[in-house]
Design goal:
Helices cover 18% and strands 44% of the residues. The chain has helices spanning 3-48, 123-129, 299-304; strands spanning 61-65, 76-77, 81-86, 95-101, 104-109, 112-117, 139-141, 152-156, 158-169, 173-182, 186-190, 195-206, 209-222, 227-234, 237-248, 254-256, 264-269, 275-279, 282-283, 293-298, 315-321.
Length: 323
């Protein structure tokens, strides 16, 4: 190697060494500067992150931007992340990128499991920011004014409503005697009609399940209308005879000397005015009744006529009635 070549080689070595020294000095300076200004830069990033009084400002993840690295083109803000770029002259041509990540909350909304991210401090603000609407009766744990320290929120959907139930009130039936209507006939004077009662309850449901049902009021909206039946009591006498009613040992017997079986009779004890209505169930047939005797009655029927037992039997008026 000639002298000129040797001089060129030495010059090259010296130049490379100088560049390496400058680079090492720059890196060391940047490292020292980064360490020295880390608190300042984090504080600056929080300010630029525009955190309000109702938000938390978590410790950001710091990413250093080397000279010539642009990072994100601008600040980014949403519910879950905020990214702030800081280019500071003390960094030389570089800077930092501060990435704030919002806490993640597990929300049990009734039967639905949700996951939300939010920088908000209170439960109410976290839910509102994520579009969760609460009704007045809904229960939230922790309370909407508190912070969810365990990153867990439970919403119990509560509904309180009044419901109406209707109950049928059955009508009653009333029968009244009508002396202008023939005995054995009936007519409906007034039709029966059921009434209606409204019963109001307050029903509480949690997550769709009925928890309680409380009686609020009872109101009769329609009174039942009584069914009225007229029962005919007018007796139509077709014929009559008078005579003595004697006694027979037959049970429950009405033996007639004048009327056939099945004839309806009104029998009146002339001595005391007691009347009973009986149906003929026996006759003398081909035999003749004793003179003056019109009936032969069992002792139980004579008792109904209040017969005192004196003589052959009571004097009776026997009337054939229209059936």
């Amino acid at each position: 190697m000639n002298k000129r070549g040797l001089i060129s080689l030495v010059s090259l070595v010296l130049t490379v060494g100088f560049i390496l020294c400058v680079a090492a000095s720059t890196v060391a300076k940047a490292a020292n500067q980064t360490s020295f200004d880390s608190d300042f830069l984090v504080s600056r990033a929080i300010v630029l992150g525009n955190f309000t009084s109702d938000e938390i400002s978590p410790i950001p993840e710091i990413r250093y931007l080397m000279p010539g690295e642009e990072g994100a083109s601008e600040m980014q803000f949403n519910h879950s992340r905020r990214i702030v770029n800081i280019f500071d002259p003390r960094f030389g041509l570089g800077g930092i990128q501060a990435i704030f990540t919002a806490p993640v909350y597990k929300v049990q909304d009734g039967e639905q499991a949700l996951t939300f991210s939010s920088f908000k401090k209170t439960v109410g603000d976290i839910l509102a920011e994520n579009g969760v609407v609460l009704a007045n009766e809904d229960q939230v744990t922790p309370a909407v004014s508190e912070s969810p320290l365990t990153n867990s929120i439970k919403i119990t959907r509560v509904s309180v409503a009044q419901i109406d139930e209707f109950q049928t009130l059955p009508y009653q039936t009333k029968t009244i005697d009508d002396p202008t209507l023939e005995r054995g006939k009936q007519i409906i004077q007034q039709a029966g009609k059921n009434g209606k009662k409204k019963i109001t309850y307050e029903v509480r449901r949690e997550n769709g399940v009925e928890i309680s049902k409380t009686l609020v009021s009872q109101t009769v909206e329609e009174e039942p209308q009584t069914k009225i039946i007229k029962n005919g009591t007018k007796v139509v006498v077709l014929s009559s005879v008078r005579g003595i009613a004697t006694a027979t040992n037959l049970s429950n017997a009405v033996v007639s000397a004048n009327y056939r079986r099945g004839t309806l009779l009104r029998i009146t004890n002339v001595s005391n005015g007691v009347s009973i209505i009986k149906t003929v169930n026996y006759t003398w047939g081909t035999a003749s009744a004793p003179s003056g005797v019109v009936l032969d009655l069992s002792w139980s029927i004579l008792d109904e006529l209040n017969f005192n037992g004196n003589g052959a039997g009571p004097s009776v008026l026997v009337e054939e009635l229209k059936q």
